[in-house]
Structure formats: C-alpha cells, structure tokens
Amino acid sequence: MDMSRKIYLFSSYLVILCASFTAAQTSCPPSPVVLHSTLASVCSQEPARSAIGCSMYRLCRNETLDPPIFPVLCDTWRVASSLCSDDPKYADSIGLCNQLQGSYKDAAQFRNCMVPYVGIKNTSSIRILHLQACAEMDTPSEMLGCLSCTAESCPNPLLSYSQGCYDMDMGQCNPWSGFCLSSDASPLGNGAAELCVNPNLRFEAIMAPPRPPSPPPDPTSPPPTRPSPPPSLPTRSPYLPPPGGSLPNTPVPMNSPASPLPQWTPPPGIRNPSQTESVCVTNSSLLECASFEYPATNITVDLVSLCTSMPYMPGCTIRTACQAGQVTGNFCRPMTLLATICADMPSMAGCKSYVTMCKNTSAVQHCKKFPAIPGLPSTSAARKAVIDMCGSMEMVQCETCNKVSCPDYIGAMSSMCAEMPYMVGCDVYASWCEASAAWEQPGGDGNSVRHYCRGAEVYGGATSSSDIPSMLMFFHQRTREILLFRSWLPKTAGEAFGSFIAITGMSFATVLIRTAQHIMVTAAATGRLGPLLAPTLTPPVLWWLPSRGQMLLNLLSSIITLVVSTLDLFAMLIAMTFNGAYFAAVVLGYGLGTLLLGHLRENYQRKAYGAPSSASSSAIVFGGDTEPCCGGGAIPPTTIIGLGSGGINTGGNAMAVMAANGGIGSFRVSSRQVDVLDGKRP
Ligand SMILES: *[C@@H]1O[C@H](CO)[C@@H](O)[C@H](O)[C@H]1NC(C)=O
Ligand SMILES: *[C@@H]1O[C@H](CO)[C@@H](O)[C@H](O)[C@H]1NC(C)=O
Ligand SMILES: *[C@@H]1O[C@H](CO)[C@@H](O)[C@H](O)[C@H]1NC(C)=O
Ligand SMILES: *[C@@H]1O[C@H](CO)[C@@H](O)[C@H](O)[C@H]1NC(C)=O
Ligand SMILES: *[C@@H]1O[C@H](CO)[C@@H](O)[C@H](O)[C@H]1NC(C)=O
C-alpha cells in the first residue's frame, strides 16, 4: 500500500518534471525581427535564391499576383524560418541563420522555435520529387513545370513543383498537399492559390485578407533589440560558431557537398525505355503485325506503373473497382483499361508502348479489339465536374474531394449525381453512363458498370442534363425554364408564349372551378339540384351526422377541392421558378378570373334566393321562417357577405389553399348565418 503510494507519487513527480522540461524546451523567446531589406539581399544570390523561402518571398512581394499570397505566409520571420530549416545546402549559404540563432539559448531551441511552412521544408527533396515525376512523363512538356525545372537548371523549384502537382499528381505530391491542406494555406489552398490551385479552377473569387500596407513597413526608426546586420557581412557573435564550421550542436548536418547544383540521377524505380522492344510495338504499321498481341505481363506492368503513380485517374478507379468485383465484364479487360488510361494520359511513361503500338495508322488488331471504355471522362474532365459540383453545393463527398486532391473522382461524381440529379456538372456523368450502356449486359455476371451508373437512370437516356436550366432563387427573365414536368421545358419564344397562355388559362380555370363550386353549393342549398341534394328539414338523430344530401354534396365538394388545390399548388410551383413572365402569367390568370367571373356568385345567389317561385328553398333556408324578406329587388345581405368571401376565394392564392378549402364550408355557414340573421331582420 505504502509502496504503491510512493511509486504513484514518484511517477507523478516524474510526469511533472517532464512536462516542465518540455515546456522549457518549447517555450520560445519572442521571435527576432527580420527586415525586408535583409531578406531581399539574402534572396538575391544563388543558391538561396531558389530556396523555398525565397520563392515564397518573391510571390509575396509580387503586387500583380491575383489572388495574392495570404499575409500569414509572408511574415518575414516565416520566410527566414523556412530558409534556415531548409537543406543545409541552402541554409548554410547565408549568414542570416547564424545571426538569428543568437537570439536563442542554443541551436536546438532555435530549431524548435522556427516556424517553416508546413509540409514543404526541404528544397532539395521537392526538387528531386519533381524531377522524378517529370522523368516519368514520356514528353515532359505535357506536365506543367517540367520545362521550367530540369536537372540542369531549376531557378524556382517551389513554383515548378507546385505546378506539376496541381497539374498531375503522380505520387510526388505529398509534401505539396501537406502544405496546401494545412492551416498555412487554408482555406483549401486558397491562402497560396498560386501554388495550390490549378489556374483552371481558380474561377472563384478568393477573398484575401487585406495585404499589409505596401511596401511592407521596414522598421526604420529605433532599431529592434537585436537588429540584423546586412547579411552580406555576417558578424560573428562571440557565442556563435563560425558559419559553415562543423560543430556538434549545429541544427543541421554539415556534410552536404558545396556543389551548387548536384547532378540529378534517375532513381532506380524509373523504367528506361529499352531498344529491345518488339518491332511491332515501335513500328506497328507493318502488315505482319496484324496478329501481334501485346503480352499480358507487359499490360500488367504498364497498368501497375500508371495506377501506382496516379491512382485517381478514372481508368485506375475502374481497375480498382474491377478488382473488388464491383465492375465486371468487358470493362475490366486489362487491355481495355490500358486503352482507357492511355486515352486519358497518353504522355505518361506507362503508356509509351501502348501509344506507339496503337496509333491510328497501326495494323495491330489487338488495339482495335479492345477500345477504351466508352464515354469515361478524362481525369481533367472528372476533376472539373467534381469541383463544379462542390462549388454549387456543399456535399459530404466534397470533404475528400477538393481543388487540391481527390482520391476517387468517378466515385464522388457518381454518388453526388445520384443523390442530387441534374446538379451542375452531372452532364459528364450522364453522358458517360449513356455511352457505357452500350456495353452493359443485364443479368448475372455480364458486363456492368452499374455500380457507378445506377444513379444515371433518372437522366433518361438521350437527354443529357446539360439542357436542364439551373435553378435561380431570385426574380429573373429567361425563356428556358422547367415548368412542373421534365418535359415541359419551353425553349423558343413561341413555346414560351404558349406556356404563358397555358399558365394563365390554368389559374383562370382555378377561379372558374371555384366559382362553379360556390354556385353548386348555393344551388344545392336552394334545392335546385334535385331532391337528393336538397337539405332535409328534419334534423338528424345526431347533430353532427350529415344527411344523405350533405354526404353527396361533401363528396362532390371534395372532388372539386382536390382539383382546385392541385391547380393552386401547380400555380405556386410555377411561380416559384422566380421567372418573371411565368409568375406574371399565374397572377394574370387569377386576376382575369376575378375580373370576368367575379359577379357570377352574386348574380346566382340573387337568382337562387330571389326567385319567389322556389318555395321549398325559402322554407329550407329560413328553417320554416316564411317571412318574405328578401324578395324583389332588395339585395339581401347574404350577397354582400358572399361577395366578400367570394372575393377572397376567387383571388385565393395557392398558399391559401387550405383557407380556400375551408372557404367552402365557411361560405355555407356564413350564408346560412346571414340568412338566419336576415330572416330575423325586421
Ligand atoms: C508576378 O506575378 C505575375 C503573375 O503570376 C507574373 O507574370 C510576374 O512575372 C510576377 N512578377 C514578378 C516580379 O515576379
Ligand atoms: C533534404 O532532402 C535531401 C534529398 O532528399 C536529403 O538528402 C537531405 O538530407 C534533406 N535535408 C534535410 C535537412 O532534411
Ligand atoms: C514486355 O516487357 C519485357 C520486360 O520489360 C520486355 O523485354 C519486352 O520487350 C516487352 N514486350 C513488348 C512487346 O513490349
Ligand atoms: C516501319 O515500317 C515501315 C513499313 O515497312 C518502314 O517503311 C519503316 O522504315 C519502319 N520503321 C522502322 C523504325 O522500322
Ligand atoms: C490519325 O490521327 C490524326 C490526329 O489525331 C488525325 O488527324 C488523322 O486523321 C488520323 N488518321 C486516321 C486514318 O484516322
């Protein structure tokens, strides 16, 4: 007991000790002030000039850059940190780092307290990654950044590497995506759009935080506590080692050779196109090559090399789905997959054999027998579509698919378009599935990409979604608008005019039917619709039970109400297109209806109640009260009230359908109430 208590105390003491130790390690003195003039002169000479920090600094100072680099990345201390935590080749070439280290207890503390850019720290390594990726391209000009950065000369590795990554991620881009998805470049790389976002996708206006006043202020007045002397004349603090000297405590290894630009040698993984390839691959137009077949092992080798470097290519996604059994049949034949991928990215090294063997003058029948998957979008088309979709609506798929990266464009695209048909960009998806339907074999284990295309059925074959006008939630004017049904899509001015008339007619008809209902109820109440519908005098056993006539009348009324509310809601849905003309048509119909039919109710009521011949009606309406009150030319108050409620009902908008519903009943009640009142009137 006592022992365990001691152990507990001891261990907690240790924990506290460790915590305070690490706290001491990580607590940093205020970061030293780095002047712009210092950075400018440091970045004016090679090799520092091509280091990540100086590349970023140049971008930061570029006034014409749109969108600009966000200020958080442009802080001079960040730039200096990036320079000083870079490869020794770059860091040791400048005296700045040694001066800055003077503000810290020791080299370790200095190293811990620097804040280089997340992900990208080592200029040598991103340069090597970029050159390797370019070497994988058959024609380097096909990939952005490969011409501006070669093994011989690479003036701006960061920019070239970033261009390569937003153009074509071939597995070299982990440092880049680490940076672009970090909080440094947030949101989503927009903080450094020049480096992180493909120019084709920079369509959204990026709201940059305000730039610091330009030119950024150089503290000219009282020099900071530790002013940085001009870096060209590195002064040595007494407690600092001479720069470049070997010291056990220096933060970075000092063993790198002093050669400014090390020769780059291709890494062992890259295949060297050999001259030993079969003659039919290099010279495929030879007649004897007609029966040549590209060996299966070579297909596999090519596919593996392509899909290892760019697993997100649609062809590679399909290959993965084939291996998982989700896609079957002809879609999964290796040669088909190779054809698909090489149609997408013909310049990649893995496609070299295929492209020369299967160029369109080729005699090789093997190529023609295995065409690419019909309609499968290319990587860039799929990426554009997914980005468009995510721009128009925030969906879960957009969490993994953004402007910087996406593990599976095809999957994201098909699931978004299935969930939300007719989204912008879904025409790519719909036309793929439509084209691929030619290969589809229903049933058992046939050919199928239904795993992806199941959601495409709503697109209904021939019509692509591209003709679906987008939904605008504000008043606008245009001809093309989907009205209620997929097929009601006026395209020409004539069709639009016809639709206008039809809509006006529809809302007019609504008023007409409602008036007819009113008249029917009045007629029934006055017994004009025959004895069946006539109200009975004898009260039912239970007051709330309808009489036979009332039941029939309720039935008729409810049928009419179904029709009227359907029309009303149709009118509302049309108005909700926010299209000015169609909105006007709806209102115009209601207005015209009231204008032309508004009087009918009153006239009919007057006719019904005013006719002295209908003894039964007066008997019924007045409940036996035979006082002749309302005959002749006197206008019974009924009509006034009726007109009032009629006015509301006739102009009733769709939102008031329920009220209109009740309106019938309330009319009946109100007319009787009035009638009774009327009867009691002296
Ligand atoms: C600034 O950026 C623009 C656009 O990227 C570029 O054309 C220009 O050369 C840059 N200017 C400098 C001084 O780097
Ligand atoms: C930078 O990368 C190069 C090449 O990958 C490597 O040799 C070097 O040690 C790295 N330097 C640092 C400081 O990590
Ligand atoms: C297939 O690959 C092997 C090994 O890489 C190579 O020697 C051979 O020439 C290739 N065949 C064709 C037809 O390209
Ligand atoms: C390819 O074949 C054609 C037709 O026989 C011939 O003219 C041409 O020289 C050949 N090319 C090579 C590189 O062998
Ligand atoms: C071969 O392709 C080229 C370019 O894609 C095209 O101009 C040419 O017409 C094609 N030739 C044949 C026979 O299809």
TrEMBL record:
Compositionally biased residues, Pro residues = 209-245, 259-270
Q: Where is the signal peptide?
A: 1-24
Which residue windows are transmembrane per the record? 496-513, 552-575, 581-600
Q: Does the keyword Ion transport apply?
A: yes
List, in alphabetical order, the Gene Ontology terms for molecular function in this entry. copper ion transmembrane transporter activity
Primary location group: membrane
Among InterPro entries, the record links this protein to: Cop_transporter (IPR007274)
Q: Which UniProt keywords apply?
A: Copper, Copper transport, Ion transport, Membrane, Signal, Transmembrane, Transmembrane helix, Transport
Any one cellular-component term (Gene Ontology):
membrane
Start and end residues of each stretch annotated as Disordered:
207-276
Keyword presence, Transport:
yes
Domain of life according to the entry = Eukaryota
Q: Name one Pfam family in it.
A: Ctr
**Cellular localization per UniProt:** Membrane
* Matching PANTHER family: COPPER TRANSPORT PROTEIN, SOLUTE CARRIER FAMILY 31 COPPER TRANSPORTERS
Q: What is this protein called?
A: Copper transporter
Give the organism the record lists: Volvox reticuliferus
